[in-house]
């Protein structure tokens, strides 16, 4: 066994680091590092920089502007970006829709939509969950009825992340209610400008608005916006949920956050001594770091197997569960480290250009918001309960 | 043995329940937390009239209660509706006024005329990167205070603040009136809806609370610990009940999600843990006047913080996305629950304190 990167992988890592040093704007990495809110323009700026380099969609085929990177290279790339506090690449068009189009879409659809995702012309959002269809996604009710050369769509989607910025939404819609619920679902692309669509923001517990409800009333969608075959959408949806999970554990983000947490533990005093010398806090910190080190190797083992043609199903779910738990625990320890200063909530201080007097150590500003916001990690993308179902189904063979 | 709360206290609890049901519904709370100080001053006055504040203090100080179980009863009802307002500051600072025999001032607080809070913990100082506390110096017949206190609850709304300060001969407590140039307040909203602030004193004139020693300050904090423990248990009761109700009504895969054994067992564990937390809160109150006060206080604060985190996180997780919305009361209960752990010392600090007292015993 050998856990070292190969010389080629090492060289690749250096190349990524050099790029980040050169091209990642300090303004953006500072915002990410200090937990400030990113604007739409911030995210678009970073996308454009990556696109310029040809690295915005590394997992796409080269002919559409992707790369020929191995899974290990993709992992290194994602990890380095996160550790450098680069803004997270918005996944909806790039990592969720595009793979489905490439595998199941027509040539015309690929040629039309993919370049527009890369150059930022189209901002995509995801229309999967509904008020009555969360973990039980296949019970979705939003209907699409064929009328001549159009579908007429009626219903409601929810938890649509950054839907307020979106030009397009990819939706799972019901085109048949006669058989099994999984068998009447279709995958439809809908222009958000179409009459009959209304977007309403959902205010979350931290006071921010990042998710939305999207309402459809008699929305006319051209039939050419159907992806693949009618009533086969569930297959495509499942493909999307299992595709490209190299980053599912969020190792890079956790490594960056843990570094920050350790720095806080070294510099924050409680009762005269640094937190890292407090046996109880140190124990929490050590357990977390051990878990993350273990997770790194678990992740690499899964990637290695995937690179050799394996289809990691249970393992992907394991990475999702423990990866999100680790990120939540890091946020929890940041909150604990803040002590009394976890309580103040100065919302404006999370925006760029805030000049007010800081309350408490500057790093404490976003910790409670992030802790509460991070609750979403174990809920979205298939809740951790659904992931456990997947694992038991795969290992129990009952 | 008798685990009933007692007739008088039950009446007080019922009075508070009725009052909150009528005057403090959910819509009202959402409005109140958006106001400048995050609580309703007029409602505070009515609560005072109903005797809620008087219940926190003994008769010889102008109240009509003051026992640990009285305190627990009041804060239990506060937690049930996560009412905002300077309950804790009133309790702790008021106990010190009582210890100093400042009955006249305390009466104005109990009557709801004057708003009081307690400034004890030092402030973070951005310049030094360390904390900065308040020191007291004699000036003529009185005292002046200099320095800063951090995260002082509702200080922006307070008329009076009891401030602890180093005198050179130990820490003593002082009464400061807000409103003068020498008393600067930087106030802000808190994560769970109320407000707090940084208090900066520069030559502020202050009245010494005579006879208030370290022991009296510790006793006031111990009362605060009992209060938060009882409040916390009520908040977790709410988190559990709201989650159970959701499990009965939310359907996925054609059945209420409460039918799923994986969720059933998690709620069973939570219910068990909450009963342990309730016992911890009862223990803290029962030992409040006994030598083992601090050991049981630390045990309660540790237990309530630990179980509280579990309750908040499980409640949100089992609700799913809807549990993260501002619209649902649940998320506000979860925020209050977690933030209670950041007041008067967190889970780890109280566990460490317990270890220390256990070793000494």
Explain this structure to me?
The complex is a heterodimer of chains A (398) and B (361). Chain A has 398 residues and is α+β, with helices and mostly antiparallel strands. Chain A is built from twelve helices and ten strands. Chain A has helices at residues 7-23, 26-33, 40-53, 71-83, 91-104, 107-118, 233-242, 251-267, 279-307, 314-338, 367-373, 384-396; strands at residues 124-127, 143-147, 150-157, 168-174, 185-191, 197-202, 211-222, 226-227, 269-270, 273-274. In chain A, the strands form three sheets. A four-stranded mixed β-sheet of chain A has the order 1-4-5-8. In chain A, strands 2-3-7-6 form a four-stranded antiparallel β-sheet, with no helix packed on it. A two-stranded antiparallel ribbon of chain A has the order 9-10. In chain A, a hairpin with a 2-residue loop joins strand 2 (143-147) and strand 3. Chain A is globular. In chain A, 43% of the residues are buried. Chain B has helices at residues 7-23, 26-32, 41-49, 68-80, 87-99, 103-110, 214-249, 261-286, 293-319, 329-340, 347-360; strands at 116-119, 123-125, 130-132, 135-139, 142-153, 160-166, 171-177, 183-189, 195-208, 251-252, 255-256. Chain B starts with 6 loop residues before the first helix and ends with a helix. Classes of the chains: A alpha+beta (398), B alpha+beta (361). Chains A and B meet through strand 9, helix 9, helix 10, helix 11 and helix 12 of A and strand 8, strand 10, helix 9, helix 10 and helix 11 of B.
Q: What is the assembly state of the chains in this entry?
A: heterodimer
CATH topology (fold) name of the largest domain in chain A? Butyryl-CoA Dehydrogenase, subunit A, domain 3
The CATH homology group name of the largest domain in chain A = Butyryl-CoA Dehydrogenase, subunit A, domain 3
CATH superfamily of the largest domain in chain B: Butyryl-CoA Dehydrogenase, subunit A, domain 3
Number of domains of chain A: 3
CATH architecture of the largest domain in chain B: Up-down Bundle
End-to-end Cα distance of chain A? 34 Å
What name does the CATH topology of the largest domain in chain B carry? Butyryl-CoA Dehydrogenase, subunit A, domain 3
Mean pLDDT of chain A: 94
Q: What global shape of chain A is seen?
A: globular
Strand-residue proportion of chain B: 15-25%
The total of beta strands of chain B comes to 11
Helix percent of chain A reads 40-55%
Strand content of chain A: 5-15%
The parts of chain A where pLDDT drops under 50 for at least 5 residues are none
Number of helices of chain A: 12
| Number of DSSP-assigned strands of chain A | 10
Biggest interface and its residues per chain? Answer: A-B, 56 and 48 residues
Largest sheet of chain A: 4 strands, mixed
Gyration radius over CA of chain B: 21 Å
